[in-house]
Amino acid sequence: MKIAVDAMGGDFAPREVVKGSVDAAKKFHCEIVLVGDEPQIRKVLEETPGWEKLGISIHHTTEVIEMGEHPAEAVRKKKDASVVVATQLVKDGVCDAVLSAGSTGAAVTAAQFILKRIRGIGRPTIATPIPTPGSVTLLLDSGANVDTKPEHLVQSGIMGSIYAEHVFGIKEPRVGLLNIGEEETKGNEQAKATYELLKNVHTINFCGNAEGRDVPTGSFDVVICDGFVGNIVLKFAEGLAKTILGLIKDAVKDGGIFAKLGALLLVPTMKKLGKRLDVTEYGGAPLLGVNGVCIIAHGSSKAKSICSAIGVADGYVEGNVLDKIRDTIIREEQLAKAEEEKNMQTEESEEKV
Amino acid sequence: MKIAVDAMGGDFAPREVVKGSVDAAKKFHCEIVLVGDEPQIRKVLEETPGWEKLGISIHHTTEVIEMGEHPAEAVRKKKDASVVVATQLVKDGVCDAVLSAGSTGAAVTAAQFILKRIRGIGRPTIATPIPTPGSVTLLLDSGANVDTKPEHLVQSGIMGSIYAEHVFGIKEPRVGLLNIGEEETKGNEQAKATYELLKNVHTINFCGNAEGRDVPTGSFDVVICDGFVGNIVLKFAEGLAKTILGLIKDAVKDGGIFAKLGALLLVPTMKKLGKRLDVTEYGGAPLLGVNGVCIIAHGSSKAKSICSAIGVADGYVEGNVLDKIRDTIIREEQLAKAEEEKNMQTEESEEKV
User: Fold this and answer.
1) What pLDDT score does B191 carry?
2) Binary contact (B265, A269; C-beta < 8 A)
């Protein structure tokens, strides 16, 4: 397997991106094409003895899309931007997947323009795995689209379900619709219309509305929502975790000798727990719905997250998820059509009676 | 001050509601009317010696609105429901405020039907205080309305700002619009339209878009959003806190003698921190925008939360927030009209030139 990595994308690029790629090449025995400014990339690589023996190569590019730029304009104008060229490598069949920790908007736009959407899919969707006590909940869409149509939210559910099954190994994933109450009649217009459609989907295990609290507790395996809500919830979780951690550190610092000793004794336990809940263990969120494997990593990704994100790409490719999404979308269309015809026949025969 | 408490509303009603009311009567030296089934209320009261010397009375009612009921239907049909009667006591001027930990929908509907909206206000809004490291962030709307019109979100901002200033004592509260990016052009249609309107509001200190992470960190004093988003974010926070706490407890239990000792040594520090972040310290969320003081408490409220919620009612009434909202809405209307006239005059004189 060969992965194109946008070496210039992310708050700590290219250093941490290159380092994480080297780690991944060792860990997953995959080939990696580092796309970006060759001198800068080479400088970091040369700090890592033995990198030449790994399947790592450099694809030189001269442009970078910055965080503040308008995604569509930037992707159109900067033909030699690292994220654009990396995505093109997948389109051309040179690489099996693309990974970027740069501007999410630019990565999504490049994927849409270059790889194009899967036939039948209205909107691609970012699927973010959230660690739960038992396993993981896939939250999608976490920011690719806002004001999403109900039929596109349904497609998110189908794609998320396939991903959870074939990458996380969850049989018949429990799919929930993020809403403000359990009852079918609850929610805004978008949620109510989506619920109606979800009831008639054949290929997923739709289990009703999920409330906000169901996301971290893991009561559902896949939770669907509009990208506006998903993005806010994820960033809220990020802010909350950071705030609480900071407050605990301050409290221990101000807490005297016993508190400090207590904290010291708890370090191994907390480290173990931290590892279990560590979002960097999941590293990347796949962009589902485009004709190619595209993984979005967090902008603040360090080497560890980049390495995990390459692992995500690996699972996505090996699980053959793309083909499964294509097949399921076609099957779902056929089943819906068959049902419609059946209903029409029933109506006709009822009319005759 | 006299507060009508819906003694039958909440998961632990009437026991915890009555107990919390007794505590509040002592703490805030206020009169309390416990509205609900007299025999049940009296039974709990009699466990508390000396309650007769406090300003507590019982207003007997025969009906209760259950959690699953349709709010509007239930409020219309059950004229003798505890929440309906308690709200009526405010309307009739017998009490200064109403508090309920029962069905939020029923409490909001009763307030809308009986107290009516403040003139000029399109939708009432629930303002939930969220503890932050430095102070508190007021998140509104946290669930009273979904698919809210931009002009109603703006009114939420005005009301929240007044509340934060006069109840929390924050001078010129920083008001933010919950969105998926800092830039003015980000967000869904609702957020973009609301941003445009907020720029021209005279009576608040609008500081731009707030991202999800800004809510717990306290970068804004007041954060406005649609009730759909607010409700999901709050319930998500609730689930996350519960999940993490459970995991820490399990980790300590499985962590051997050193972990247990460490946890023991940390207890006082964590208790102090917990108290600082304790949502039950804030207890209740005011429903802003109706002609009367109405406080919504969490369904799972225990005595402590009920007592704090009564404290919230106290601050609301003493701060004269209702009159200030009425005055500001009128002033804002006048300022907008004056500006419009000025613009028209400028256009006219430009045309003449």
Assistant:
1) 97
2) no
